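Hi F.,

I've been meaning to write this up properly since the lab meeting, where we talked about keeping a consistent format for the predictions we share between groups. The idea is simple: the sequence comes first, exactly as it goes in, then the structure tokens exactly as they come out, then a line or two of notes. No screenshots and no reformatting. I'm using this chain as the first example so we have something concrete to point to.
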Amino acid sequence: MKESRGISISGSELFERDVEAAVELLSRSAGFANCIVGNIEKIIENRTLLSGGSMKLNRERGIAELRLPDARTESELRLFFLACTIAHEAFHNELFKRLVAEHGESGYLQMWKSVPWRIELQCVEYEIEIATELKFPIEVIENLKTGRGLSVHDELLPEQRRMLGRSIRNLRTMPDQE
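Output, unedited:
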């Protein structure tokens, strides 16, 4: 098990190395200390996930354990996508804390049940913001803006997935990328 910037990382040697590099990359972001470190305490390799991430939230402590796919695919862009997934899942936890503080846990659950695609959209917007700030390759940003990974959102109904996809595709290109 490794540790990077206060986050424990557990998995194969390749997985630990890649996630450590992604966390280090994210640490250059202005929002790193506020959003990522305060929301994820452990990242674990999960060999059953094909893409995306899954989070186990410790509600009392307000911090999450993140499970990511194993290092099956080698790609020069893998590091950037890992970093985006970590940022996305950390922002989920950040939104959970904000909404609970404002509306209570029942308010958050009601929002998640009624408009989950809006929560997902905010997380994707955060990914794009981080990717743009850190000057990730344009292929990564464009992939985010096409709704990459929407099929893994099994909790969304088909119409909600379509609404999320349309909303993501309607996001303006960030000024630095035009």
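Notes:
The beta strands are 2-4, 7-10, 40-46, 54-58, 63-69.
Residues 173-178 have pLDDT under 50 and may be disordered.

If this format works for you, I'll send the rest the same way.

G.
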